[in-house]
Amino acid sequence: MNMEDEEKALKIYFIPYLAPGHMIPLCDIATLFASRHQNVTIITTPCNAQILGRSIPLNQNLCLQTVPFPSQEVGLPDGMESLSAATNPDNLVKIYQGTTLLRPPIEHFIEQNPPDCIVADFLFPWVDELANKLQIPRLAFNGFSIFAICAMESVKANSIYESSSYVIPDLPHSIAMTATPPKEMTELLGELLETVFKSNGIIVNNFAELDGEEYIEHYEKTTGHKAWHLGPASLIRRTIQEKAERGEQSVDKQLYEISCGIENSGHEFVWVVPEKKGKENETGEDKEKWLPKGFEERNIGKKGLIIRGWAPQVMILGHRAVGGFMTHCGWNSTVEAVSAGVPMITWPVHGEQFYNEKLITQVRGIGVEVGAAEWSIMGFGEREEVVGRECIEKAVRRLMDGGDEAEEIRRNAREFGDKAKLAAQEGGSSYKNLTTLIDDLKRFTDRKLLVPE
Question: Top EC class per UniProt (predicted)?
Protein backbone atom coordinates (compact mmCIF):
# COMPACT_ATOMS: atom_id res chain seq x y z
CA MET A 1 0.00 0.00 0.00
CA ASN A 2 1.45 3.39 -0.96
CA MET A 3 1.30 6.73 0.87
CA GLU A 4 -1.56 8.00 -1.30
CA ASP A 5 -3.77 5.04 -0.31
CA GLU A 6 -2.96 5.58 3.38
CA GLU A 7 -3.96 9.24 3.14
CA LYS A 8 -7.28 8.28 1.60
CA ALA A 9 -8.28 5.86 4.36
CA LEU A 10 -11.84 6.48 5.49
CA LYS A 11 -12.78 7.05 9.11
CA ILE A 12 -15.90 4.89 9.65
CA TYR A 13 -17.96 4.40 12.84
CA PHE A 14 -20.03 1.26 13.32
CA ILE A 15 -22.89 1.28 15.85
CA PRO A 16 -24.24 -2.27 16.39
CA TYR A 17 -27.44 -2.95 18.32
CA LEU A 18 -26.97 -4.67 21.69
CA ALA A 19 -28.04 -8.18 20.72
CA PRO A 20 -25.77 -10.97 19.43
CA GLY A 21 -27.83 -11.54 16.28
CA HIS A 22 -27.24 -7.90 15.30
CA MET A 23 -23.80 -7.34 16.82
CA ILE A 24 -21.90 -10.34 15.47
CA PRO A 25 -22.56 -9.88 11.73
CA LEU A 26 -22.13 -6.08 11.79
CA CYS A 27 -18.86 -6.34 13.73
CA ASP A 28 -17.64 -8.99 11.28
CA ILE A 29 -18.44 -6.58 8.45
CA ALA A 30 -16.58 -3.83 10.33
CA THR A 31 -13.60 -6.20 10.44
CA LEU A 32 -13.90 -6.56 6.68
CA PHE A 33 -13.63 -2.77 6.16
CA ALA A 34 -10.59 -2.71 8.47
CA SER A 35 -8.96 -5.51 6.47
CA ARG A 36 -9.12 -3.13 3.47
CA HIS A 37 -7.09 -0.56 5.45
CA GLN A 38 -9.99 1.71 6.41
CA ASN A 39 -9.95 3.23 9.92
CA VAL A 40 -12.82 1.56 11.75
CA THR A 41 -14.23 2.28 15.23
CA ILE A 42 -17.00 0.14 16.76
CA ILE A 43 -19.07 2.07 19.33
CA THR A 44 -20.58 -0.11 22.06
CA THR A 45 -20.91 -0.54 25.85
CA PRO A 46 -18.19 -1.84 28.23
CA CYS A 47 -19.44 -5.43 28.67
CA ASN A 48 -20.05 -5.87 24.95
CA ALA A 49 -16.63 -4.37 24.24
CA GLN A 50 -15.04 -7.04 26.48
CA ILE A 51 -16.80 -9.80 24.53
CA LEU A 52 -15.91 -8.29 21.16
CA GLY A 53 -12.31 -7.71 22.21
CA ARG A 54 -11.84 -11.47 22.58
CA SER A 55 -13.19 -12.33 19.15
CA ILE A 56 -12.26 -9.58 16.68
CA PRO A 57 -8.71 -8.64 15.60
CA LEU A 58 -8.16 -5.22 17.19
CA ASN A 59 -5.30 -3.36 15.49
CA GLN A 60 -4.32 0.05 14.09
CA ASN A 61 -7.27 -0.08 11.66
CA LEU A 62 -9.88 -1.45 14.09
CA CYS A 63 -10.64 -0.16 17.59
CA LEU A 64 -13.46 -0.06 20.15
CA GLN A 65 -15.02 3.03 21.71
CA THR A 66 -17.23 2.56 24.75
CA VAL A 67 -20.11 4.57 26.15
CA PRO A 68 -21.52 3.62 29.57
CA PHE A 69 -24.71 1.55 29.68
CA PRO A 70 -27.32 3.27 31.92
CA SER A 71 -27.84 0.29 34.24
CA GLN A 72 -28.89 2.29 37.31
CA GLU A 73 -31.27 4.55 35.39
CA VAL A 74 -33.31 1.58 34.12
CA GLY A 75 -32.97 -0.59 37.23
CA LEU A 76 -30.65 -3.32 35.94
CA PRO A 77 -27.69 -4.99 37.64
CA ASP A 78 -24.24 -4.06 36.32
CA GLY A 79 -23.12 -6.17 33.39
CA MET A 80 -26.54 -6.84 31.85
CA GLU A 81 -25.98 -4.94 28.60
CA SER A 82 -27.29 -7.24 25.86
CA LEU A 83 -30.74 -8.56 25.03
CA SER A 84 -29.30 -12.09 25.23
CA ALA A 85 -28.52 -11.50 28.92
CA ALA A 86 -32.19 -10.98 29.81
CA THR A 87 -33.57 -13.73 32.05
CA ASN A 88 -37.20 -12.56 31.91
CA PRO A 89 -39.46 -10.22 29.88
CA ASP A 90 -39.12 -7.48 32.50
CA ASN A 91 -35.33 -7.36 32.08
CA LEU A 92 -35.80 -7.44 28.30
CA VAL A 93 -37.87 -4.25 28.46
CA LYS A 94 -35.31 -2.58 30.74
CA ILE A 95 -32.42 -3.44 28.41
CA TYR A 96 -34.41 -2.04 25.49
CA GLN A 97 -35.02 1.15 27.50
CA GLY A 98 -31.29 1.30 28.21
CA THR A 99 -30.46 1.15 24.49
CA THR A 100 -32.70 4.19 23.85
CA LEU A 101 -30.74 6.16 26.47
CA LEU A 102 -27.46 5.57 24.60
CA ARG A 103 -28.28 8.27 22.08
CA PRO A 104 -26.88 11.33 23.99
CA PRO A 105 -23.43 9.85 24.83
CA ILE A 106 -23.00 8.36 21.34
CA GLU A 107 -24.05 11.62 19.69
CA HIS A 108 -21.67 13.58 21.92
CA PHE A 109 -18.72 11.36 20.98
CA ILE A 110 -19.50 11.51 17.26
CA GLU A 111 -20.04 15.29 17.21
CA GLN A 112 -16.70 15.80 18.99
CA ASN A 113 -14.93 13.35 16.64
CA PRO A 114 -16.84 13.35 13.32
CA PRO A 115 -16.15 10.45 10.92
CA ASP A 116 -16.41 10.17 7.13
CA CYS A 117 -19.31 7.71 7.39
CA ILE A 118 -21.56 6.05 9.99
CA VAL A 119 -22.83 2.47 9.68
CA ALA A 120 -25.64 1.89 12.19
CA ASP A 121 -28.22 -0.74 13.02
CA PHE A 122 -31.70 0.28 11.89
CA LEU A 123 -32.90 -0.04 15.50
CA PHE A 124 -31.04 3.25 16.06
CA PRO A 125 -33.12 5.36 13.61
CA TRP A 126 -31.91 8.63 15.21
CA VAL A 127 -28.54 8.14 13.48
CA ASP A 128 -30.23 9.37 10.29
CA GLU A 129 -30.81 12.79 11.87
CA LEU A 130 -27.27 12.91 13.27
CA ALA A 131 -25.64 12.03 9.93
CA ASN A 132 -27.68 14.69 8.15
CA LYS A 133 -26.66 17.26 10.76
CA LEU A 134 -22.97 16.40 10.23
CA GLN A 135 -23.45 16.14 6.44
CA ILE A 136 -21.86 12.72 6.24
CA PRO A 137 -23.16 9.53 4.58
CA ARG A 138 -24.98 6.96 6.68
CA LEU A 139 -25.34 3.29 5.81
CA ALA A 140 -28.01 1.16 7.49
CA PHE A 141 -27.84 -2.45 8.67
CA ASN A 142 -30.64 -4.71 9.89
CA GLY A 143 -29.53 -8.30 9.39
CA PHE A 144 -32.34 -9.10 6.91
CA SER A 145 -32.05 -10.53 3.43
CA ILE A 146 -33.20 -8.29 0.58
CA PHE A 147 -35.75 -10.99 -0.32
CA ALA A 148 -37.31 -10.63 3.14
CA ILE A 149 -37.46 -6.82 2.88
CA CYS A 150 -39.14 -7.08 -0.55
CA ALA A 151 -41.71 -9.47 0.93
CA MET A 152 -42.32 -7.21 3.97
CA GLU A 153 -42.83 -4.16 1.79
CA SER A 154 -45.32 -5.99 -0.43
CA VAL A 155 -47.30 -7.34 2.55
CA LYS A 156 -47.41 -3.86 4.08
CA ALA A 157 -48.39 -2.16 0.81
CA ASN A 158 -51.24 -4.64 0.29
CA SER A 159 -52.38 -4.59 3.96
CA ILE A 160 -52.34 -8.37 4.31
CA TYR A 161 -53.28 -8.90 7.95
CA GLU A 162 -56.11 -11.44 8.01
CA SER A 163 -55.57 -14.15 5.39
CA SER A 164 -54.13 -17.42 6.70
CA SER A 165 -53.25 -18.48 3.16
CA TYR A 166 -52.18 -16.07 0.41
CA VAL A 167 -49.65 -15.39 -2.32
CA ILE A 168 -47.42 -12.33 -1.74
CA PRO A 169 -48.27 -9.89 -4.56
CA ASP A 170 -45.86 -8.31 -7.05
CA LEU A 171 -42.73 -10.39 -6.34
CA PRO A 172 -40.60 -12.05 -9.06
CA HIS A 173 -41.74 -15.49 -7.77
CA SER A 174 -45.16 -16.69 -6.67
CA ILE A 175 -44.56 -17.02 -2.92
CA ALA A 176 -47.32 -18.95 -1.14
CA MET A 177 -47.70 -18.20 2.59
CA THR A 178 -49.64 -20.12 5.25
CA ALA A 179 -49.06 -17.70 8.13
CA THR A 180 -49.86 -14.00 8.52
CA PRO A 181 -47.40 -11.60 10.18
CA PRO A 182 -48.69 -9.84 13.30
CA LYS A 183 -50.02 -6.42 12.27
CA GLU A 184 -47.98 -4.64 14.98
CA MET A 185 -44.76 -6.20 13.67
CA THR A 186 -45.50 -5.27 10.05
CA GLU A 187 -46.23 -1.67 11.01
CA LEU A 188 -43.18 -1.30 13.28
CA LEU A 189 -40.78 -2.79 10.74
CA GLY A 190 -42.41 -0.68 8.05
CA GLU A 191 -41.67 2.51 10.02
CA LEU A 192 -38.07 1.46 10.67
CA LEU A 193 -37.56 0.58 6.99
CA GLU A 194 -38.82 4.01 5.95
CA THR A 195 -35.85 5.48 7.84
CA VAL A 196 -33.53 2.88 6.26
CA PHE A 197 -34.63 4.04 2.80
CA LYS A 198 -33.53 7.59 3.67
CA SER A 199 -29.94 6.40 4.21
CA ASN A 200 -27.23 6.24 1.54
CA GLY A 201 -27.63 2.47 1.27
CA ILE A 202 -28.23 -0.74 3.20
CA ILE A 203 -25.46 -3.20 4.03
CA VAL A 204 -26.64 -6.79 3.62
CA ASN A 205 -25.17 -9.84 5.37
CA ASN A 206 -25.69 -11.96 2.29
CA PHE A 207 -24.23 -12.56 -1.15
CA ALA A 208 -25.96 -11.43 -4.33
CA GLU A 209 -26.33 -14.94 -5.74
CA LEU A 210 -28.53 -16.10 -2.84
CA ASP A 211 -30.90 -13.13 -2.79
CA GLY A 212 -30.80 -13.19 -6.59
CA GLU A 213 -30.39 -10.34 -9.06
CA GLU A 214 -34.15 -10.35 -9.63
CA TYR A 215 -34.79 -9.40 -5.98
CA ILE A 216 -31.95 -6.88 -5.84
CA GLU A 217 -33.40 -5.17 -8.93
CA HIS A 218 -36.94 -5.37 -7.46
CA TYR A 219 -35.73 -3.82 -4.19
CA GLU A 220 -33.87 -0.95 -5.84
CA LYS A 221 -36.72 -0.30 -8.32
CA THR A 222 -39.53 -0.28 -5.73
CA THR A 223 -37.68 1.56 -2.92
CA GLY A 224 -35.26 3.75 -4.88
CA HIS A 225 -32.61 2.55 -2.43
CA LYS A 226 -29.19 0.94 -2.91
CA ALA A 227 -28.36 -2.49 -1.44
CA TRP A 228 -24.75 -3.54 -0.79
CA HIS A 229 -24.27 -7.32 -0.46
CA LEU A 230 -21.02 -7.78 1.50
CA GLY A 231 -21.48 -11.21 3.14
CA PRO A 232 -21.66 -13.89 4.27
CA ALA A 233 -20.24 -12.39 7.47
CA SER A 234 -19.66 -15.86 8.94
CA LEU A 235 -16.96 -16.48 6.29
CA ILE A 236 -15.04 -13.38 7.37
CA ARG A 237 -14.00 -14.75 10.74
CA ARG A 238 -11.96 -17.92 10.61
CA THR A 239 -12.09 -18.84 14.32
CA ILE A 240 -14.61 -21.14 15.99
CA GLN A 241 -15.78 -18.38 18.33
CA GLU A 242 -18.95 -17.68 16.37
CA LYS A 243 -22.01 -17.19 18.52
CA ALA A 244 -25.18 -19.10 17.77
CA GLU A 245 -28.47 -17.25 18.07
CA ARG A 246 -29.89 -17.69 21.53
CA GLY A 247 -33.29 -17.44 23.14
CA GLU A 248 -35.86 -19.62 24.79
CA GLN A 249 -37.55 -20.36 21.50
CA SER A 250 -39.10 -23.62 22.70
CA VAL A 251 -40.85 -24.67 25.90
CA ASP A 252 -41.49 -28.12 27.38
CA LYS A 253 -44.45 -29.34 25.29
CA GLN A 254 -42.69 -28.50 22.03
CA LEU A 255 -39.39 -29.97 23.21
CA TYR A 256 -41.22 -33.22 23.96
CA GLU A 257 -42.62 -33.37 20.43
CA ILE A 258 -39.18 -32.65 18.97
CA SER A 259 -37.57 -35.43 20.99
CA CYS A 260 -40.21 -37.93 19.82
CA GLY A 261 -39.95 -36.77 16.21
CA ILE A 262 -36.17 -36.96 15.92
CA GLU A 263 -36.02 -40.33 17.72
CA ASN A 264 -38.75 -41.81 15.50
CA SER A 265 -36.93 -40.63 12.35
CA GLY A 266 -34.10 -43.03 13.18
CA HIS A 267 -31.34 -40.57 12.20
CA GLU A 268 -28.30 -39.50 14.20
CA PHE A 269 -28.56 -35.99 15.66
CA VAL A 270 -26.96 -33.13 17.59
CA TRP A 271 -29.73 -31.28 19.46
CA VAL A 272 -29.12 -27.85 20.99
CA VAL A 273 -31.77 -27.08 23.64
CA PRO A 274 -32.31 -23.85 25.62
CA GLU A 275 -30.28 -23.52 28.80
CA LYS A 276 -32.75 -23.65 31.68
CA LYS A 277 -31.68 -21.00 34.16
CA GLY A 278 -31.67 -22.35 37.70
CA LYS A 279 -32.44 -25.91 36.53
CA GLU A 280 -28.93 -27.16 35.91
CA ASN A 281 -29.60 -30.09 38.26
CA GLU A 282 -33.18 -30.83 37.23
CA THR A 283 -34.87 -33.90 38.64
CA GLY A 284 -35.95 -36.91 36.61
CA GLU A 285 -39.55 -35.76 36.98
CA ASP A 286 -38.70 -32.31 35.54
CA LYS A 287 -36.77 -33.89 32.68
CA GLU A 288 -39.66 -36.14 31.72
CA LYS A 289 -41.72 -33.03 30.97
CA TRP A 290 -39.56 -32.46 27.89
CA LEU A 291 -37.86 -35.82 27.26
CA PRO A 292 -39.65 -39.17 26.90
CA LYS A 293 -38.72 -41.69 29.57
CA GLY A 294 -35.56 -43.56 28.61
CA PHE A 295 -34.72 -41.14 25.73
CA GLU A 296 -31.18 -40.48 26.95
CA GLU A 297 -30.46 -44.15 27.64
CA ARG A 298 -31.67 -45.12 24.15
CA ASN A 299 -29.92 -42.33 22.25
CA ILE A 300 -27.18 -40.36 23.99
CA GLY A 301 -23.73 -41.69 23.16
CA LYS A 302 -25.21 -44.06 20.58
CA LYS A 303 -26.83 -41.95 17.89
CA GLY A 304 -27.48 -38.61 19.55
CA LEU A 305 -25.98 -35.72 21.49
CA ILE A 306 -27.80 -33.04 23.49
CA ILE A 307 -26.06 -29.70 24.05
CA ARG A 308 -27.63 -27.39 26.64
CA GLY A 309 -27.28 -23.65 26.00
CA TRP A 310 -24.64 -22.25 23.66
CA ALA A 311 -23.09 -24.37 20.91
CA PRO A 312 -20.32 -23.60 18.38
CA GLN A 313 -22.82 -23.54 15.53
CA VAL A 314 -20.53 -22.54 12.66
CA MET A 315 -18.02 -25.25 13.61
CA ILE A 316 -20.77 -27.90 13.81
CA LEU A 317 -22.30 -26.87 10.48
CA GLY A 318 -18.86 -27.10 8.87
CA HIS A 319 -18.38 -30.75 9.92
CA ARG A 320 -18.71 -33.17 7.03
CA ALA A 321 -20.91 -35.51 9.11
CA VAL A 322 -23.74 -32.95 9.27
CA GLY A 323 -26.40 -33.79 6.69
CA GLY A 324 -29.09 -31.28 7.63
CA PHE A 325 -29.89 -28.37 9.95
CA MET A 326 -33.26 -27.81 11.64
CA THR A 327 -33.44 -24.04 12.08
CA HIS A 328 -35.80 -21.24 13.10
CA CYS A 329 -34.57 -19.38 9.99
CA GLY A 330 -32.97 -16.45 11.76
CA TRP A 331 -30.90 -14.85 9.01
CA ASN A 332 -27.50 -15.39 10.67
CA SER A 333 -28.17 -19.11 11.10
CA THR A 334 -29.60 -19.36 7.59
CA VAL A 335 -26.62 -17.79 5.87
CA GLU A 336 -24.22 -19.84 8.05
CA ALA A 337 -25.91 -23.05 6.88
CA VAL A 338 -25.87 -21.89 3.25
CA SER A 339 -22.16 -21.04 3.53
CA ALA A 340 -21.47 -24.55 4.83
CA GLY A 341 -23.49 -26.14 2.01
CA VAL A 342 -25.91 -27.73 4.52
CA PRO A 343 -29.60 -28.17 3.57
CA MET A 344 -32.23 -27.07 6.07
CA ILE A 345 -35.44 -28.13 7.76
CA THR A 346 -37.21 -24.82 8.31
CA TRP A 347 -39.15 -23.98 11.46
CA PRO A 348 -39.80 -20.21 11.57
CA VAL A 349 -41.17 -18.57 14.73
CA HIS A 350 -41.14 -14.76 14.60
CA GLY A 351 -39.69 -11.63 12.99
CA GLU A 352 -38.87 -12.08 9.30
CA GLN A 353 -38.18 -15.82 9.71
CA PHE A 354 -41.26 -16.93 7.72
CA TYR A 355 -40.02 -14.93 4.73
CA ASN A 356 -36.55 -16.46 5.04
CA GLU A 357 -38.17 -19.89 4.99
CA LYS A 358 -39.69 -19.18 1.57
CA LEU A 359 -36.35 -18.07 0.12
CA ILE A 360 -34.83 -21.34 1.36
CA THR A 361 -37.60 -23.72 0.28
CA GLN A 362 -39.70 -22.22 -2.53
CA VAL A 363 -37.13 -20.00 -4.29
CA ARG A 364 -33.72 -21.65 -3.89
CA GLY A 365 -34.73 -25.27 -3.18
CA ILE A 366 -32.23 -25.86 -0.36
CA GLY A 367 -34.60 -26.98 2.39
CA VAL A 368 -37.93 -28.50 3.43
CA GLU A 369 -40.60 -27.03 5.71
CA VAL A 370 -41.61 -28.59 9.02
CA GLY A 371 -45.04 -26.97 8.73
CA ALA A 372 -44.93 -24.18 11.35
CA ALA A 373 -47.84 -21.74 10.95
CA GLU A 374 -47.88 -19.68 14.17
CA TRP A 375 -46.22 -16.30 13.58
CA SER A 376 -45.38 -14.93 17.03
CA ILE A 377 -44.50 -11.36 17.99
CA MET A 378 -41.71 -12.52 20.33
CA GLY A 379 -39.11 -15.27 19.99
CA PHE A 380 -39.83 -16.83 23.36
CA GLY A 381 -42.74 -17.84 25.56
CA GLU A 382 -45.60 -20.33 25.32
CA ARG A 383 -46.99 -21.24 21.89
CA GLU A 384 -50.65 -21.71 21.14
CA GLU A 385 -49.85 -24.30 18.48
CA VAL A 386 -47.40 -27.18 18.92
CA VAL A 387 -45.82 -28.74 15.83
CA GLY A 388 -46.52 -32.47 16.21
CA ARG A 389 -43.95 -35.25 16.24
CA GLU A 390 -45.37 -36.70 13.00
CA CYS A 391 -44.61 -33.46 11.11
CA ILE A 392 -41.11 -33.34 12.58
CA GLU A 393 -40.38 -36.98 11.72
CA LYS A 394 -41.77 -36.51 8.20
CA ALA A 395 -39.57 -33.46 7.55
CA VAL A 396 -36.44 -35.21 8.85
CA ARG A 397 -37.12 -38.30 6.74
CA ARG A 398 -37.92 -36.18 3.67
CA LEU A 399 -34.48 -34.59 3.85
CA MET A 400 -32.40 -37.44 5.29
CA ASP A 401 -33.83 -40.69 3.88
CA GLY A 402 -32.51 -40.11 0.37
CA GLY A 403 -34.58 -40.12 -2.83
CA ASP A 404 -34.66 -37.75 -5.79
CA GLU A 405 -36.05 -34.73 -3.91
CA ALA A 406 -33.47 -34.99 -1.11
CA GLU A 407 -30.62 -35.44 -3.60
CA GLU A 408 -31.69 -32.36 -5.55
CA ILE A 409 -31.92 -30.29 -2.34
CA ARG A 410 -28.42 -31.47 -1.31
CA ARG A 411 -27.02 -30.66 -4.74
CA ASN A 412 -28.54 -27.17 -4.60
CA ALA A 413 -27.20 -26.63 -1.07
CA ARG A 414 -23.68 -27.65 -2.12
CA GLU A 415 -23.83 -25.29 -5.12
CA PHE A 416 -24.89 -22.33 -2.96
CA GLY A 417 -22.17 -23.21 -0.44
CA ASP A 418 -19.61 -22.96 -3.23
CA LYS A 419 -21.13 -19.67 -4.46
CA ALA A 420 -20.98 -18.21 -0.94
CA LYS A 421 -17.28 -18.96 -0.61
CA LEU A 422 -16.52 -17.57 -4.08
CA ALA A 423 -18.49 -14.39 -3.33
CA ALA A 424 -16.33 -13.64 -0.27
CA GLN A 425 -13.01 -14.33 -2.01
CA GLU A 426 -10.97 -11.79 -3.96
CA GLY A 427 -12.74 -11.21 -7.26
CA GLY A 428 -16.08 -12.49 -5.93
CA SER A 429 -19.32 -10.51 -5.92
CA SER A 430 -19.20 -9.43 -2.25
CA TYR A 431 -15.49 -8.59 -2.49
CA LYS A 432 -16.13 -6.40 -5.55
CA ASN A 433 -19.13 -4.75 -3.86
CA LEU A 434 -16.97 -3.71 -0.91
CA THR A 435 -14.33 -2.27 -3.25
CA THR A 436 -16.99 -0.24 -5.08
CA LEU A 437 -18.60 0.94 -1.81
CA ILE A 438 -15.29 2.15 -0.38
CA ASP A 439 -14.53 3.97 -3.65
CA ASP A 440 -17.98 5.61 -3.63
CA LEU A 441 -17.53 6.79 -0.03
CA LYS A 442 -14.09 8.21 -0.86
CA ARG A 443 -15.53 10.11 -3.83
CA PHE A 444 -18.24 11.54 -1.55
CA THR A 445 -15.58 12.64 0.94
CA ASP A 446 -13.42 14.18 -1.82
CA ARG A 447 -16.40 16.15 -3.19
CA LYS A 448 -17.17 17.41 0.30
CA LEU A 449 -13.58 18.61 0.72
CA LEU A 450 -13.80 20.52 -2.56
CA VAL A 451 -16.97 22.41 -1.63
CA PRO A 452 -16.06 26.07 -0.83
CA GLU A 453 -17.11 27.60 2.47
Answer: transferase
Closest CA to 367 of 419, 312, 405: 405
Q: Which of the residues 28, 116, 121, 211 is marked catalytic?
A: 121
Classify 136 as helix, strand or coil: coil
257-304 pLDDT tens trace: 888 888 888 888 888 887 654 445 566 667 767 788 888 888 887 788
What are the backbone dihedrals phi and psi of residue 307, each rounded to the nearest 5 degrees, phi first? -115, 125
Question: Within this chain, do residues 295 and 344 fall inside the same structural domain, yes or no?
Answer: yes
Is residue 121 annotated as part of the catalytic site, yes or no? yes
Instruction: Examine the domain organization and report whether 299 and 221 are in the same domain.
Output: no
Query: How far apart are the C-alpha atoms of 277 and 274, rounded to whole Å?
Result: 9
Among the listed residues 441, 355, 379, the one whose alpha carbon sits nearest the alpha carbon of residue 173:
355
Residues 185, 311 contacting (CB under 8 angstroms): no
Catalytic choice (22, 218, 328, 350): 22
- Domain span at residue 129 reads 11-239+424-449
**Does the global pTM surpass 0.85?**
yes
Q: Is residue 6 part of a domain?
A: no
φ, ψ for residue 15, nearest 5 deg? -120, 90
Domain count, the chain: 2
